[in-house]
Each structure stands twice: as structure tokens, then as C-alpha cells.
Amino acid sequence: DTMAVGAGDGFDERGVNTGAVYVYSATGPGEWTQVDKLLADDGREYDDFGGAVDLFEDTMVVGSNGMFLPGAVYIFTYRSGRWSQSQKILPDDSAVDDLFGQSVAMFADTIVVSAKWNAERGYRSGAAYVLTRKKNERRRPRRVGSIPKTHGRRCRRPRQFRVFGGHRRRHHRRGSVQRRRQRPRERIRLHLQAEQKRPLETVSEARGPRRGVQ
């Protein structure tokens, strides 16, 4: 079993708030041992790398909302006994202070990324982006629409794959934690099909009035 712990406010020789993700492996009942520390290949100050993190089988998605910079999402894959960065994803309409990567959720071949302060439909109206796997690669983000200001803080998956970690006020700006679980492929496919038929509200967790949902 594997657990990833994001530390978005971490700092090192590259500067303040560069961030990191610490990877732990279960070594016994209730015992975890650190096996890796992940950094963005192009990390810099105020990236907030690790502010959001999620795991699914051999793939890890890490949010880096950028704080005062355009945010990004990093994909890591587990091969030959180690995690390595395989892709960095930026939205086509990225802008400073959008907080793209504020929260992330991964399920099978689909990733949902929130941009809490995206202003496409008004000041900090927010948006969610959906990424899908294609021919062993990931497409550029596809925005699924603008959502109310109370949305975009945390993405959701089916109940048995709950995402831990969300709006930083709930975590005292300390990052997020995610533990990897594996499910049979057949069961995963059924849940994914069910999710695709649900309305937009399922990709974000409401925290206030749901006015303005298209």
C-alpha cells in the first residue's frame, strides 16, 4: 500500500512555497516508511507544488496552483520501483491567480482539476477541467463549464475513492494526503460510466448556495 503526503508550503534551496510530495509505503500494521520525495522538475518559488495530490494504481496527479503564478498539474508514474514525472499540464486559457490545480481527483483514466478563481464567467466564478487518457498520453485540459464561487474548492470521486485534502483553510495551509487503493478493472469501468451521466455538480463539492449552475 502507498500513501502520498503533499506539502505545498515546503521550501528548499529553490525558494519559499516550492512544495514537495512525500511518498510512504506500508511496512506493517500501522507502520509507514518514507520511500521517496517528489519535486517538480521545473519547481520555483510560490508554486505550491503538493497543495493537492491524488493516487490511482501506478499514476499520481499533483496540483501546483501557483499562488501568484499560473497553476499547473504534474503527472507521475510508477515504473521500475520508483516514481518519475511524466507530464506537466497547463490549461490553454491559464492566467495568473486562477488557482488551477487547487484540488485534483483521479479515477481510472479521468482526472478532474479545479481552478477556484477562474474568471471566465465573472470575478472568481471558478471552473473545473476534465483530462482523459488517450493512447498512453494525456490530453490538454477540457473545461466543463463555469461553476458558482462556492465550487472549485474540492473535487469528488465515488464514495469508495474519497479524496482527502481540499481548500487550504481546512488544512491550515499544510497540504493534503492521499492513500492509494486498487479496484478490479470491471468495477472501475462501471463506476466511471455512471459518473459520466451525472450533472456537473458531481465534479465539485458545493459549500454554499447552488445559484448560477448552468
TrEMBL record:
Gene3D superfamilies: Integrin alpha, N-terminal. Residues 164-184 have a biased composition (Basic residues). Keywords: Signal. It holds the Pfam family FG-GAP_2. Residues 136-155, 164-214 are annotated as: Disordered. Residues 185-200 have a biased composition (Basic and acidic residues). PANTHER family: GAMMA TUBULIN COMPLEX COMPONENT C-TERMINAL DOMAIN-CONTAINING PROTEIN, UNNAMED PRODUCT. This is Uncharacterized protein. It comes from Corethron hystrix.
